[in-house]
Amino acid sequence: MSMQKSIETRLQESLPLTTLIVENESHNHGGSGTETHYKVTAVSEAFAGVGAVKRHQQVYGLLSDALANGVHALALHIYTPEEWQKKHAQAPQSPDCMGGSQ
Question: Are 98 and 46 in contact (CB under 8 A)?
Answer without folding.
Answer: no
